[in-house]
Write a structure and sequence with these properties.
Pathway: Cofactor biosynthesis; FAD biosynthesis; FAD from FMN: step 1/1; Cofactor biosynthesis; FMN biosynthesis; FMN from riboflavin (ATP route): step 1/1. One of its GO terms (molecular function) is riboflavin kinase activity. This protein is an alpha/beta fold. Helix content is 25%, strand content 30%.
């Protein structure tokens, strides 16, 4: 991966939160020594910070919006040309805007930049236009079949392990409780997932929401199927496949435990595991 700006000949510019299929179509127009310019707005919560780097082989350079938002379009292009002296090609989406108050569009880009400008048209799958804001809505609603199709991969969150209630292993099933920061979370419910612990991925079932039957606190917890995994402050991530059900309150611990067993069986069927 070439991280030397002096040798970069093409760049793709955008926010690129999600690094979804439409973003990848921009990257496909880059030359072999191309790079990605990610404009950081502070609102990236599908692929926060350096998580974008897992979704591409191109180097990514991060530009804080606050540092460039007062530049005119001409000044912004001048900045790019000074930082990338061999720049010959810029790739953007059809709705790209730049310069102070987003005053410039792709037409001004073509006139201000003396190299090649590639403008990628809107891309749709199943008549759904692929935009980060649209994918966020599918994620928030727990529709991961659609969200993952538009992303081109399974949606993933990362967190650190924290202490749970202590009820799981003693009264229900063992779970890993996570503290999740910066990531967009789906609505409350139970999800079919895969959980990665120490770089090993396991079929799992995950709960996100307020524990309305027990202590009422919000939790993100995951149960790994057919394994008793000891995780202690490990790097843990969860990939989402499908929502099983909404969060609900049960009249008793026994009813809750019965539902958990049913959820686990549904998850095993999904992954074609032996019951």
């Amino acid at each position: 991966m070439n991280k030397d700006k002096k040798n970069i000949t093409s760049i793709a510019i955008g926010g690129f939160d999600g690094m979804h299929i439409a973003h990848q179509s921009l990257f496909n127009n880059l030359t072999s020594n191309g790079a990605i310019i990610a404009i950081e707005t502070g609102h990236a919560n599908m692929t926060p910070k350096e998580q974008r780097e897992k979704c591409t082989t191109f180097p990514i350079f991060y530009y804080e919006l606050n540092d460039i938002k007062n530049l005119s379009g001409k000044e912004f292009i001048k900045l790019l040309k000074s930082e990338f002296p061999k720049l010959k090609k810029i790739v953007v989406g059809f709705d790209f805007c730049f310069g102070k108050n987003r005053a410039n569009s792709t037409e001004e880009l073509k006139s201000l930049f003396d190299g090649e400008v590639v403008v990628v048209n809107e891309i749709s799958i199943n008549d759904i236009a692929i935009h980060s804001r649209i994918i966020r809505e599918y994620i928030k609603n727990g529709d991961f079949e659609t969200a993952n199709t538009l992303l081109g991969r399974k949606y993933e969150i990362k967190g650190t392990q924290i202490k749970g209630q202590g009820l799981g292993k003693s009264d229900f099933v063992p779970t890993i409780n996570l503290d999740i920061k910066e990531y967009l979370l789906p609505n409350e419910g139970v999800y079919i997932t895969k959980t990665k612990v120490d770089n090993v991925s396991y079929p799992s079932i995950s709960f996100l929401g307020h524990r309305v039957t027990t202590d009422g606190n919000f939790a993100v917890e995951t149960h790994i199927l057919n394994k008793d995994i000891s995780a202690h402050n490990s790097n843990i991530s969860i990939k989402f496949f499908k929502k099983l059900r909404d969060n609900q309150k049960f009249d008793s611990f026994e009813k809750l435990k019965e539902q958990i067993v049913n959820d686990i069986n549904d998850c095993k069927i999904y992954f074609n595991l032996n019951l």
